[in-house]
Amino acid sequence: MTFSFLGIHRAPTMALCLSLAIVATGCASMSGGKQVAPTASLYSRLGGYDAIAAVTDDFLGGALSDPRIAPFFKGLEPRDIQRIRQHVVDQLCNATGGPCYYPGRDMKTVHAEMEINNDVWNAFTSHFNPTLAKFKVPERERNELVNIIGSLRGSIVNR
Ligand code: HEM
Fold first, then answer.
1. Rg, Å, the chain Cα set
2. Could you give the residue ranges of the DSSP H alpha helices within the chain?
3. What is the pLDDT of residue 6?
4. How many Cβ atoms are within 10 Å of 48's Cβ, its own excluded?
5. Angle, in degrees to the nearest 10, between helices 139-150 and 78-95
6. Which of 62, 74, 85, 137 could form a disulfide bond with 132, CB atoms 3.0-4.6 angstroms apart?
7. 5 with 57: CB under 8 angstroms?
8. Considering only CA atoms, which of 118, 140, 132, 111 is closest in space to residue 38?
9. What are the structural domains, with CATH classification, of the chain?
10. Which residue's CA is the closest to the ligand 1 atom numbered 17?
């Protein structure tokens, strides 16, 4: 399975920007030259929409290539994967304080029939930290993102 359409090749540019954005001095190239204050939303501190999309692409690329996870997505068409990817970006953008609307279904409904247990959850989320490290996301923003993902656990793990 390849997921090159997820746009992973854009990651190096974003990585640079993301790492700059987070020193609380802002990411000039991605925020139109504006400085990003430490009190700004997580969305802004991460570098905005494109940075969040790049992080999502990298994370999903790793998770969906994982043999422990891939079977859950078996049979889905590329357009389905594209929709899921877009919905995860919208969801993260929204949850971090960005100007996005999440148009997808609620997490409990989406994952209800999948029999996702703790092992599957841990396998899936194990791809998150390597992505955050690759993008040089500092501890504060890393913790905030991990908390956002962790808050979904109760709606997704159902075994
Ligand atoms: C970090 C935790 C997770 C988040 C934020 C998340 C988010 C999402 C979102 C936004 C969608 C699309 C919903 C829609 O289009 O209405 C989705 C669909 C899906 N998720 Fe998750 N998910 C998570 C964990 C998991 C896990 C652990 C699995 C199983 C390994 C999984 C398997 C799926 C599958 C197979 C779909 C496609 C459902 C379908 O449209 O048929 N997800 N997820």
1. 15
2. 11-20, 42-46, 49-65, 78-95, 107-111, 118-125, 128-134, 139-150, 153-156
3. 39
4. 24
5. 120
6. 137
7. no
8. 140
9. 4-156 (1.10.490.10)
10. 84
Question: Measured from the CA of 153, which atom of ligand 1 is nearest?
Answer: 2
Among 156, 50, 149, 159, which Cα is nearest to 105's?
Answer: 156
CA distance 155 to 48: 26
Q: Structure tokens of 63? A: 């998770």
Test site for ligand 1: of 3, 156, 158, most ligand atoms within 8 A of the Cβ: 156
- How confident is the model over 11-62, as pLDDT tens digits? 334 443 454 444 444 443 334 456 788 899 999 999 999 999 999 999 999 9
The structure tokens listed for 26 are: 């802002």
Contact 60, 6 (CB under 8 A): yes
Q: What is the DSSP letter of 70?
A: G
pLDDT computed for residue 45 by the predictor: 97
111-158 tens-digit pLDDT: 999 999 999 999 999 999 999 999 999 999 999 999 999 999 999 999
